[in-house]
Amino acid sequence: MTDSDTHDISRRRLLGTAGAAGAAGLVTGAAGITAAVSEDGSANGSGAPGALTSVGATAVAFHGRHQSGITTPLQSRGHLVAFDLAPGAGRKEAAALLRRWSATARTLMAGGAPAEDTDVARDAGPSSLTVTFGFGRTFFDRTGLAARRPSQLDPLPAFSSDALDPKRSEGDLWVQVGADDSLVAFHALRALQKDAGGAARVRWQMNGFNRSAGATARPMTSRNLMGQVDGTNNPRPSDPDFDRRVFVPEGASGPQAWMAGGSYAVVRRIRMLLDDWEGLSREKQERVIGRRKSDGAPLTGDTETTPLKLDERGPDGKPVIPVNAHARISAPEQNAGAAMLRRPFSFHDGIGADGVPDAGLLFVCWQADPLRGFVPVQRKLDRGDALSPFIRHEASGLFAVPGGAAEGEYVGQRLLEG
Ligand SMILES: C=CC1=C(C)c2cc3[nH]c(cc4nc(cc5[nH]c(cc1n2)c(C)c5CCC(=O)O)C(CCC(=O)O)=C4C)c(C)c3C=C
Ligand SMILES: [Fe+2]
């Protein structure tokens, strides 16, 4: 029996629901958003139970040169989970686990359900589900693969503003689940946890969110919990140097040959000190970042996508974008070209005894080499970012995320069986 035989791909009737949506009528709105609507105008249509809108029906490919969840548009729900291998589990058990995880991810991302399903996502489509797998530094010692551990996984330097909790940091294995439906994301997370069986145990878990998919007529850059437009100056896949910045090149040699097509994820749980932040006037908040809150445009004017004029001075002779503004200090031109792809989720884990929300940013950034991405930029921010008094880095992880699995392969096979 093959892996896919053990899963009932038709259970959630992806094709059936697509057909039903077709029967109800597929429309493309002015914004280019396609949705299933019925004659009575309801999204599902009373005559088509289980029909999906394009949000539910959208599927992301599991197989490919890169894993999903890196260049995939931000999803509305995310779970970040680190696992440690169980005592006694080594390379053989890890390989079997990655094989199981890959089969489950492939099935769920296509809208199927695992055997003995819980039905949590029964009426849902794939909802842009992605599952991304990575290896932490400690994985290589536990599996006897230390000789194949890339130097890019060397520990991140300590930063003066770090207040890191080791129990919520690092881990042998890392899984990122993203979806545009919370039930679909939970369903996947639970299935992956069950797959881990006796081979690995959850070390930490963080849950995050972004704006609901399809909520705005024109997809726009997301906002974070400080109210800023966040993600504007991310590298774009159409940039000529995007691949070089984000992915390990094909033909990489030495200990990271198995990482071709992969990327390194830096994960930081960054608490926002929201009472302090919200106590600032809007003008002061905008000077902290160097951009307007309303539309994300630089303080030097125009629109969100207009480049920052870092040399422009105001009537008082001072730079319009302050010297310690976050967007100035983190810009590639201030960091010898260092850049990363930021792909975060917001988090909110309740309100503390002091009445302040335990909320902030699950900062996830992707790069071909952390020493040419996160590290130099965070070093610079650590020395004088106007945002620093309003945030606290509480947990950290660095993970090697291998390239995508080819048909018939599982994620990490080139490391575990190479
Ligand atoms: C070390 C990397 C970075 C950390 C940590 C970080 C935390 C952080 N950032 C914001 C809000 C914004 N960041 C913005 C831009 C921006 N930030 C980084 C890096 C880190 N941010 C970079 C590389 C950039 C792009 C700089 C550029 O090229 O201009 C912005 C502006 C809009 C944008 O370009 O995205 C905002 C807003 C928060 C709230 C935060 C921690 C909680
Ligand atoms: Fe930032």
From TrEMBL:
Entries under Pfam families matching the protein: Dyp_perox_C (PF20628), Dyp_perox_N (PF04261)
The processes (GO biological process) annotated in the record are: iron import into cell
| Annotated Polar residues bias | 219-236
Annotated signal peptide = none
Q: Which InterPro entries match?
A: Dimeric_a/b-barrel, Dyp_perox_C, Dyp_perox_N, Dyp_peroxidase, EfeB/EfeN, TAT_signal
Which parts of the sequence belong to the Dyp-type peroxidase C-terminal domain? 221-405
Give the co-factor note. Answer: Binds 1 heme b (iron(II)-protoporphyrin IX) group non-covalently per subunit.
Task: Cite the entry's keywords alphabetically.
Answer: Heme, Iron, Lyase, Metal-binding, Oxidoreductase, Peroxidase, Signal
Q: What is its EC number?
A: 1.11.1.-
Q: Where do the Dyp-type peroxidase N-terminal domain residues begin and end?
A: 67-210
Required cofactors, per record? heme b
- Domain of life the protein comes from: Bacteria
The segment annotated Disordered runs over 213-243, 288-316
Task: State the compartments where it is located.
Answer: Cell envelope
User: Where does the protein principally reside?
Assistant: other
Q: What is the protein name for this chain?
A: Deferrochelatase
Question: Organism classification, top ranks?
Answer: Bacteria, Bacillati, Actinomycetota, Actinomycetes, Kitasatosporales
